[in-house]
Fold this protein.
Amino acid sequence: MDNHTAGQAAADGGTGAEPGVEPGVEEGRGAPVGRRVVLGMLGLGAVGVGVGGAVQGRLDSILASVSAKDPTGVTGLLPGGGGFRFYSVSDSIPHRGESDYRLTVGGLVDRPASYRLSDLRALPQTRLVRDVQCVTGWRVPKTAFSGVRLSTLLDAAGVKSAGGAVHFTCFDGVYTESLTLAQARRSDMLVALTMDDKPVTAAHGGPVRLYAAPMYFYKSAKWLSGITVTEKVERGYWEHYGYDVDGWVGKSNGRHDAPTS
């Protein structure tokens, strides 16, 4: 899903307690959004559909920030850039940049590492164009993501024989995800730096996010900060609310969507 609130849907791909059902809003997650603000945001969303990328990027940031403090879930209905919708699991949209972003790779590896944005950009880049499918039902066709194959970082670190899974942490302090080692080594699993050939914005989980192309978008953790090799899969944020650990599009969560293409 795209932007997450503990107890709401995660716009880049998932909701709460069980597929299609939003759990109750957690207390203390920001002041409620008023009716006038919501109506104003609806107007902004409508404007955003018809404007250029730069303006839409700014609107996405505004909408994402408001949705993080919206216990009603109404702002989750707003159109984001290119058809994305925004929800949140944290009470604000975190930001990192050139000076303070780091991605660590550790756990059951021979060579732990820490990457700056410039380090990640210097590695071989892979571009994938796939449909983005949210488990709540919306789909954004032919979305381009580019970045470093997850397998490249795992190979550089040297996975120990006891390693069987990969756990992901995020600098919002809330979101987590996991993949089996076999899933993580697929060629369509990226540590993404760009979306639609532009740097991934904070509203969309940048500057670096996971992109698990063949899975529902809740598996594509935003604001990625840590990659830890573990012995076995540790359930991620949304799996604790009932979502499938193996979130394949069309083969999980009780849905029958066509696979992403």
